[in-house]
Write a structure and sequence with these properties.
Strand 27 and strand 28 form a beta hairpin. The chain starts with a helix and ends with a helix. Strands 5, 6, 7, 9, 10, 11, 16, 19, 23 and 24 form a ten-stranded antiparallel beta sheet that branches. Strands 8, 12, 13, 17, 18, 20, 21, 22 and 25 form a nine-stranded antiparallel beta sheet that branches. It has a five-stranded antiparallel beta sheet with strand order 26-27-28-29-30. The protein is globular, with a radius of gyration of 25 Å. Helix content is about 30%, strand content about 25%. The chain is of the alpha+beta class.
């Protein structure tokens, strides 16, 4: 495998799905349901078609690149008075006015693709097509400038910075170039002042890193290139801090993830492989034919950037990998957002100090290989914490934790106001109807699990009480958990429901969950007025090579010094203390109520840097 192979694979995949009648690819729908209502049939997507045009040009063989680019340029909103000026819909079948919510990020995504086409292949395009491409780039860059996203929106902040800088230089547009220069200063300052808001995101780390790499590759401005170089090296160091060679995974916690398994993230996998020069273990991409079409078509877009991470990063990726604890300050604030990751001989366990419980979060994540064989051939086994309302992830959950090594003490409260399914524009307000509210540890891709409650074999449907030890053994790894306490609406879990229960869903995933609410029919609840609403517990990962004693762990001590606070203490080795809010409150109130300590020392930025 080499760079040419990645480009050829993208070209060949696109060739199979090209529709000459539409001058676009024809693929199954794959859009964010927040933005599109199309979920079935076949569609003609604009972003993947642009990536395919780049792959055609990179392959050096004849193909429909010019026709595609002309079609893409003419599908853009060209009305300067329109609120969607400069962006595209996801697919030709759903114009911008018909979308649930047009996605302004498409100016950034397609804009970057078109800029790579223009920089790398402008001389090879017919004059009329190049004019169309340049005009589309100008519109996209203008849309990016008008929007002017907060620099905490890490991946789009970086991508739009490249688009405006590169467009300003390519089109000799002094206003765009001046904006881009100011924007990269602000982006670098954001990293220095607050850290990485979209920390350790397998998907969006790649988007961000590719954008700053593109600045280094295509932008001439010396200051912009220097700042991009600093951000580039920082991003690579940030990623490799949680590299776990034994599982072939980047460990948690993750701010935004669609999958925790590197085998399911082909673009990132290929990008890292390219960066290492395709050295072991990245000398092959097993099972590539089974990966998502959208990922395969986009390979050329990343391959042409030819990443060059710092030597220390390369050594970490191709060596045996570290073992031990890593703690990193992700973002400064009240409280600081701090990630802790344990890299063990068999498993990795990561947690974040505090975050909401959006479906993309991996606030507590444990990964191990339940099966043998080559890396990435079989799926990696995992356990992660979820907060669900009627079986969908509830954004309004507020996760807090403190971790030492292979032990995590955690707490989940509720934010009011808080989000339902999405972090933007989906806030729960007033009474809502719901059937269930659960805090669960989800286990997936288990090979041969053995489950026990209090040392007794257990299975789906079995119940457990607070402080019952639930153990899930899979291969050489055992996860041991306890729920230490819970309340919902002033009723303690020990006085009746909520109860703990094991269940297995249709996908074969095992859940050990505490049910704060479990009603046979939907009931009306105003979550902001519930009062006490929280659950807490402990999580330990044990490996067969451990020499720490048996598989048991002591219960955590729970104190309720006031109506609004819960204090947890656990001593599985080091003493862990966690203070958190017991009642529903705003996100700011939950943040103010957080305190995590390891052996009496607070998790501060100084602790994070140690």
């Amino acid at each position: 495998m080499d760079d040419a192979w990645l480009i050829d694979h993208a070209r060949e995949t696109g060739d199979r799905f090209y529709d000459p009648a539409e001058h676009l690819l024809r693929l199954p729908p794959h859009g964010d349901r927040t933005h599109t209502a199309i979920t079935e049939g076949w569609v003609h997507p604009f972003t993947q078609s642009t990536a395919y045009a780049l792959a055609v040009l990179e392959s050096g063989a004849d193909g429909p690149a010019a026709e595609i680019l002309r079609r893409i340029a003419r599908a853009q909103d060209a009305d300067p008075a329109s609120p969607t000026y400069g962006i595209w819909s996801y697919v030709a079948e759903e114009p911008l006015p018909l979308m649930r919510r047009p996605d302004p990020n498409w100016a950034d995504f397609i804009g970057q693709e078109l800029l790579q086409v223009a920089f790398r292949h402008g001389d090879a395009l017919p004059a009329g097509v190049l004019d169309d491409v340049h005009l589309a780039i100008r519109r996209a860059a203008t849309a990016v400038r008008r929007r002017d996203v907060d620099m905490a929106y890490t991946n789009i902040a970086a991508k739009g910075t490249f688009v405006t800088l590169a467009a300003g230089e390519l089109l000799a547009d002094d206003e765009l170039l001046s904006y881009g220069r100011d924007r990269i200063e602000r982006l670098a300052a954001e990293f220095d002042r607050r850290g990485i808001h979209e920390y350790n995101s397998p998907t969006y780390w790649l988007v961000t890193c590719a954008a700053v790499t593109a600045i280094q590759r295509y932008v001439a401005d010396a200051r912009a290139r220097d700042l991009a170089g600093v951000l580039h090296d920082r991003l690579w160091t940030h990623l490799v801090t949680r590299w776990h060679a034994v599982t072939g995974q980047f460990g948690g916690p993750m701010s935004r993830a669609y999958a925790g398994d590197l085998a399911d993230n082909l673009p990132l996998h290929a990008y890292v492989a390219q960066a290492t020069g395709y050295r072991a273990p990245f000398d092959a991409l097993p099972g590539i034919e089974t990966r998502q079409l959208y990922h395969r078509i986009g390979l050329a877009s990343f391959a042409v950037l030819r990443p060059e991470p710092p030597p220390a990063v390369l050594a970490a990726l191709t060596g045996p990998g570290p073992v031990g604890e890593r703690r990193e300050l992700f973002e400064t604030g009240t409280p600081d957002v701090i990630g802790t990751t344990w890299l063990g001989p068999r498993a990795t366990l990561g947690s974040v100090s505090q975050a909401d419980s959006w479906v993309q979060r991996r606030n507590l994540l444990c990964l191990w290989r339940g099966r043998g064989g080559p890396l990435w051939r079989d799926p990696v086994s995992y356990a992660r914490l979820r907060v669900t309302k009627d079986d969908h992830d509830l954004v309004a959950g507020v996760f807090s934790s403190v971790q030492s090594g292979r032990h995590v003490l955690w707490h989940v409260g509720l934010a009011g106001p808080g989000g339902d399914r999405h972090v933007v524009g989906d806030e729960l307000s007033g009474p809502t109807r719901l059937r269930s509210l659960r805090m669960s540890i989800e286990f997936g891709q288990l090979a041969h699990p053995l489950v026990s409650i209090g040392g007794r074999e257990a299975g789906p449907g079995d119940e457990f009480a607070l402080d019952d030890e639930v153990a899930v053994r899979d291969g050489a790894v055992t996860v041991v958990l306890r729920f230490a306490g819970a309340e919902f609406g002033g009723r303690a879990a020990g006085d009746g429901p909520p109860r703990g229960r094991l269940r297995v869903d249709d996908a074969g995933r095992l859940f050990a969950g505490l049910e704060l609410l479990d009603a046979p029919e939907p009931v009306e609840v105003d979550l902001a007025r519930v009062g006490p609403a929280w659950a807490a517990g402990t999580f330990t990962v044990i490996e067969d090579v451990d020499v720490h004693g048996d598989e048991s762990s002591p219960p955590a001590r729970v104190e309720r010094p006031s109506d609004g606070e819960v204090r947890l203490t656990w001593t599985p080795g080091a003493r862990l203390d966690l203070h958190a809010r017991a009642t529903v409150g705003t996100a700011a109130e939950h943040a103010a109520g957080y305190r995590g300590l390891v052996d009496g020392a607070a998790l501060t930025s100084r602790a994070a840097a140690s």
